[in-house]
Predict the structure.
Amino acid sequence: MVLGISLRCRKKTPDCQAGATILKLALLVDRYLLIVSTFCFFAAIVRTILSLRARTFQPGRFSFLAIGLGFIFQTAFLSIRGHALHRCPLTNLFEVFIFLAWSIALIYMLVGPTYRLSLMGAFTAPLVFLIQTFALAAPIDVRHAMKLSPNPWLEFHASVSIVAYGAFGLASIAGVMYLVQERQLKTHQLHSIFYHLPPLTDLFAAITRLLWLGLALYTLGIVSGFFTGRPLPGVQVVAAIGVWLLYAAILQGRHLRRLAPKRVAALCIAGFGVALTLLWGITFSAQTHSLP
């Protein structure tokens, strides 16, 4: 369970036992912080559902504050877990999913208010909630023996790549918002949420910006992987290039106007599903090799 001390302390000295006890408590506390964070996102979801049922939906401060509070607890979890492991908390699938949820919340906090996409919180909270609930419920928080010392380049490569996934995730959320509004316009069935959705042109512009942000960060992540001084598994390289080509193709199709905005929005949603599946495979491949 405890990695940093258990690998260093072969002998059961009092100092090592005390250090191991402290780390066990830290890893226990960080999980409670994550549970509180998950409830914050759940509160934002409940508020949205109640407003929709009452047909009085109106994006307000509550959802943004709930997401902001959830983000703070996410950050506290990652900080404690990182200090306990003495490395970036990306050592197993559990930590990867939480880092992804944190990245989605981070980019929403930066992009939502800037581009007047406050309603995006109503769509962001469910995605983050589902990711964190799955991570907490599934038996994936498994400690793996770290055979290698921390590598700054490798940690930078992994963390920047996950933040890029966060941008792709938010692009998929904007895609959902685009399709919801487009369908309501097409069927002439306008709900209260419709009047708070940004114009389709603004949503499409947000999708494009998020895709460019994600692709730029992902490119940086891939390039930095070649400076680690360690050979990367072929499966990881192929999967990473596959994700890059997928989003590059979407942007190219949008630039050449061969893809209609509706198709781009749908591809963002499908693409994120594919990217998540490949992320699972990349993480599994990393765990079968020496981790940072």
Observations:
- Residues 147-292 form a domain with the Four Helix Bundle (Hemerythrin (Met), subunit A) fold (CATH 1.20.120).
- Confidence is low (pLDDT under 50) at residues 1-11.
- The CA atoms of residues 87 and 150 lie 6 Å apart.
